[in-house]
Amino acid sequence: MPDSPPPLGASALRDLAQILPAARLLLDPSELLAYGYDNSRRMAMPQAVALAQTPAEVKAIVGVCHAHGIPLVARGRGTNTTGAAVPIAGGLVLSMEQMNRILRISPGDRLIECEAGVLNSEVQAAARPHGLFWAPDPSSAGYSSVGGNLACNAGGPRAVKYGTVRDNILGLHAITGDGREIQAGCTTTKGVVGYDITRLIVGSEGTLALITRATLKLLPLPQTRRMLRAAYRDVAAAAAAVARLMSQAAIPSSLEFLDAQAVQLAQSYRDCGLSADTGSLLLIEVDGTNDTIDSAVRAVSAAALGAGLIELCAAASEAEAEDLWAARKALSPALRTLAPKKVNEDVAVPVTRLPELVEGVAALSKQHGIRIVTFGHAGNGNLHVNLLANPDDPAQMSAITGCLEDVFRLVLQLEGTISGEHGVGIDKRDYVAWEIPQTTLKLMRAIKHVFDPKGILNPGKALPD
Ligand SMILES: Cc1cc2nc3c(=O)[nH]c(=O)nc-3n(C[C@H](O)[C@H](O)[C@H](O)COP(=O)(O)OP(=O)(O)OC[C@H]3O[C@@H](n4cnc5c(N)ncnc54)[C@H](O)[C@@H]3O)c2cc1C
Q: 10-95 has which fold?
């Protein structure tokens, strides 16, 4: 990141004003404010915001920023949790919110093509009448954009069976940091021509190129689904059940884990009638056809049985299943009611190492005196480890960093990764070199230079200096 960012001076502003009408080039601080933060709750003011409507405008805007060396941050809806969309170097934020058209849907080819600013939920709504869906289902689906989902390689509960964005994209169009328009991927579900630039840009957090549109792979909606809840005496018993569930043939369509504190929080949101001695809960969803669902439920139930199980029961109705999901999805925002400061990590480990992770995290919580609430997408070994603290308590604030670093050390010892889905942004940048070897990092920096020779795209994010 440059020490003192080049100001977006009068000449650059004149060039931008040639591309956009005044109503779509925001300069008033009161309007800029809304584009300075994201769900990390960090804040930095941009110098201007561009509301592009076409790929040609995006290309021209990037061209101006490249020519003048102006930092440029792409923005979807600002829901990421790592500070990835915060313009810490100032400069220009390019918001995709007005690039929100669905361009075509081809049910026979199981694909949809749309602009980057379309919301995830709008993709789902367009696909549903054709009996199709797009697999990535972040809990933020109602208000996060396809461009942001791609740039963060988003996933969600369904990723255990259907994968993340990288598994469900066919191609994309993007503008590199020096204003070149590129097209990557194809419209078929098989294709091996050239390097896989599509999947390189996916997860790159706006540091390689600005995605303008994408072709997404759709899947047939399952005919039916069933929801089970399995309550265990402790987290170790639940974690062991996850490994059993993942080593048999009927893959759950979601497999969510909640520790005892998360269970209490969910219960306070909606009373699910759980026994008071529940030390951990698995929410297990299976989907399939009307012909196969019963046998899938039987197989999954058999795997959920085991030492420490208190209760295994199926949701009696779709409404009861929705209630359980609503309680699960409310957890993340509800944590703010427990403590004003939450550090929400989303580490992932191989599924068979989950018992070691949950036990290790509990030990670190005690050792550092930091309250930790853990829940998440256990079928992928991906847990949200939430460290809670009072920002007015300096002792807790200093303990939180030590505790967090020990969590990362533990995860890496268990052959895991420090981020399963939320990405790096600013928050995890200092720890990337703990996970990625220097030689690989050097190659990544060289790739960044090819895409963005002046380093104007989202400076200070994703890769350490
Ligand atoms: C309540 C809640 C629940 C969540 N649940 C999940 C979950 O289950 N799974 C999950 O994976 N995430 C989850 N998230 C995180 C977040 O919603 C996702 O990371 C989402 O993909 C971000 O989309 P966005 O449109 O808000 O992007 P933004 O936050 O605006 O941007 C995120 C990053 O993408 C870049 N970017 C945005 N658009 C483009 C583009 N067109 N081209 C290039 N780069 C671009 C930005 O520069 C930034 O680096 C959750 C967030 C919240 C608030």
A: 3.30.43
